[in-house]
Design brief:
Blueprint: H1 3-19, H2 23-36, H3 41-53, H4 57-70, H5 75-87, H6 91-104, H7 109-121, H8 125-138, H9 143-155, H10 159-173, H11 176-186, H12 194-208, H13 210-213, E1 229-235, H14 242-251, E2 259-265, H15 272-279, E3 283-286, H16 292-301, E4 306-309, H17 319-323, E5 329-332, E6 347-350, E7 366-369, E8 398-401, H18 410-422, E9 427-431, H19 436-447, E10 455-458, H20 463-468, E11 475-477, H21 486-493, E12 498-501, H22 510-518, E13 524-525, H23 528-540, H24 542-557, H25 564-589
Parallel strand pairs: 1-2, 1-4, 2-3, 4-5, 5-6, 6-7, 8-9, 8-11, 9-10, 11-12, 12-13
Helix pairs in contact: 1-2, 2-3, 3-4, 3-5, 4-5, 5-6, 5-7, 6-7, 7-8, 7-9, 8-9, 9-10, 10-11, 11-12, 14-15, 18-23
Length: 592
């Protein structure tokens, strides 16, 4: 028997172990093979794949490099190395690996796809889009490339193009989460009101969730209405992320004698915020390796009473788990204010400002309105002190929006151009990756007889670096139709007033909720003309801006926006209401 044939026999045994979830034992077999047959590239390659699946990236990279040295002309090992480097966040090295493959094999869709991902991680958006387009030219039905191309287009503010690519990716993949990317992105488009969004979500439910919802899991939970309730939070964002920052504030103030907290974390990397959130949980489970079926089974076995989704249709969500109904009471909260489309999710949390009375029928879930604020803000520990208004040291007023560039719609930029036209010599600072989308906006300003140098872009910073950018902004402009959330809080905490438009959807009314709870409804516009008037008035009133800068933190601290204990009590009250409703429904069904 040759070495190759002998290895193939051992490889089958290792593959069987991997399928059984026994990756450690499979890796041990491959290590033994590598020691016995160190000259076989395939041995090191298989070891690398197994270690990468286990999250042991350093060992995987070493194994892939060994395979490459033994088989330098094969692209497979190099592509695998690039993917593993990318998984570790080493995008520059990953890009170099993929470019090496392309140099030797210019018709490799896998290499171009990996290169597109690496470029996107590096913030090179034009290059990323080009790499995805090359992937699709080589393999037109590559649904992941189509989906990621849509992601890149969205980040560049090309929403119509992104929507078209998402629709095509959904057709190709038949996957619920790919179609969910489309649903989330529709919220950024100015033509989608509550009704159109509701229709799209219902179509998604019928296609991807209805069959799962028709066979819900059984629940043997104790129906005592006043007992300690088990609450499970499911999210890929229990980390340094807006969702992570908001949920940590809530979890830190839960009454642990009334609620037992389970966290189902679905992200491979942890950080300091992850550690803070984890310290607030009674039980923490890292669930990324689990399939939807396995996770649903685990939640059901944990006897969770109330299961809370914190992702909705954002990346790496677990809505197919919720469709299986692993807990008797299910809710959505915090990712963004809209609907999941699932009937298996019973409730959604909101507030009266995000969802005024009369809009309940647009949601598949029943709406529970918090009496105060939807969000509760905790100031970042590394926030710099507030600086004087920059206009005092400049000869002009600076407007700014440090929101995700995908939110900068054409109607929003047209409105901001109008403000610049009304306030001579004023400047505008926007946050965006590098790319041609920056020049597109500069050209648009030039077409309106505005000096393009009045527009400045800033890239990505650490939290403290990002917050320090507000020292350069006099007035913040909330984008629409999808407004700011945590970014609005950050601007206010740094002493910058925010002008916001009352939109037609929940995601378009975040500023209404935040500013109403702050006691500053005068910064809320009910029309485009009103938005321009508010922005111009703030720019022209130097003394008012100085007072605002000096007082805003105090106003926030005294508002419901930072009253974490009261916010937690309000949410717990809604949890208890929903739990008692389920308990009472069960008692009503019992025979007398």
């Amino acid at each position: 028997m040759t070495d190759q044939h002998a290895f193939e026999f051992r490889d089958k045994a290792a593959a069987a172990l991997r399928q059984q979830g026994r990756a450690e034992e499979a890796a041990a077999i491959y290590r033994e093979c590598a020691a016995q047959w160190p000259g076989l590239a395939i041995v090191h390659f298989k070891l690398g794949k197994t270690l990468a699946q286990m999250g042991q990236y350093r060992g995987a990279i070493a194994a892939y490099r060994a395979a490459m040295l033994l088989h330098p002309t094969s692209p497979e090992e190099t592509v695998a190395l690039g993917q593993t480097l990318a998984d570790q966040g080493r995008a520059i090295e990953a890009a170099a690996a993929f470019e090496l493959v392309i140099e030797k094999n210019p018709n490799s869709p896998a290499a171009y796809f990996g290169l597109g991902n690496a470029f996107r991680e590096m913030g090179l958006m034009d290059e990323s889009i080009t790499a995805y387009e090359r992937t699709l030219a080589l393999e037109r039905d590559h649904h992941r490339a189509m989906n990621n191309l849509a992601n890149a287009l969205k980040e560049c503010g090309r929403i119509d193009e992104a929507i078209a690519r998402y629709r095509r990716a959904a057709e190709l993949s038949k996957e619920a989460r790919v179609a969910g990317n489309l649903l989330y992105t529709l919220h950024f488009h100015p033509d989608y009101d509550r009704q159109r969004l509701a229709d799209e979500h219902e179509a998604w439910r019928r296609t991807y969730a209805q069959s799962l919802e028709s066979h819900p899991m059984r629940h043997g939970n104790d129906r005592s209405p006043d007992r300690r309730v088990r609450v499970g939070y499911v999210s890929p964002d229990l980390r340094e992320h807006p969702v992570g920052r908001f949920i940590q504030t809530l979890l830190a103030h839960h009454r642990r004698d009334q609620f037992e907290i389970f966290c189902y974390a679905d992200h491979p990397k942890s950080d300091a915020m992850t550690a803070r959130i984890r310290s607030c949980a009674d039980l923490w489970r890292d669930v990324q390796p689990l399939s939807d079926n396995e996770l649903a089974k685990q939640i059901n076995e944990d006897r969770i009473d109330i299961l809370v989704d914190l992702a909705m249709h954002t990346a790496n969500n677990r809505l197919p788990v919720f469709a299986r109904k692993p807990a008797p009471v299910q809710m959505s909260y915090l990712a963004y204010c809209s609907t999941t489309g699932l009937k298996a999710i019973d409730w959604r949390l909101s507030d009266p400002h995000l969802d005024p009375p009369g809009v309940e029928h647009f949601y598949s879930e029943k709406t529970l309105r918090l009496p105060g604020t939807y969000w509760c803000y905790e100031a970042p520990a590394d926030a710099p002190p507030i600086s004087p208004p920059p206009s005092l040291r400049n000869s002009y007023v600076t407007f700014g929006s440090l929101n995700n560039f995908a939110k900068i719609s054409q109607p929003a930029i047209d409105t901001w151009i109008s403000i610049l036209q009304h306030v001579p010599h004023s400047r505008l600072i926007l946050h965006a990756h590098e790319g041609s989308h920056r020049q597109r906006l500069r050209d648009l300003l030039a077409s309106q007889s505005i000096d393009p140098n009045r527009l400045e872009f800033v890239g990505f910073y650490s939290m403290s670096g990002y917050l320090s950018q507000y020292s350069r902004i006099d007035v913040a402009l909330d984008p629409f139709p999808y407004g700011g959330g945590h970014t609005t809080f950050d601007a206010l905490w740094m002493g910058v007033p925010v002008v916001s438009l009352a939109g037609r959807t929940g995601v378009g009314r975040g500023g209404v909720s935040i500013l109403s709870n702050l006691g500053k409804p005068q910064w809320i516009a009910d029309s485009i003309d009103s938005y321009v008037d508010i922005g111009v008035a703030l720019a022209r009133n130097r003394d008012e801006r100085i007072e605002i800068r000096n007082q805003l933190r105090g106003w926030m601290l005294q508002s419901p926006l930072m009253d974490a204990a009261s916010h937690a009590r309000e949410i717990e009250s809604d949890y208890r209401f929903a739990w008692r409703a389920w308990c009472n429904a069960g008692q009503a069904q019992q025979p007398t």
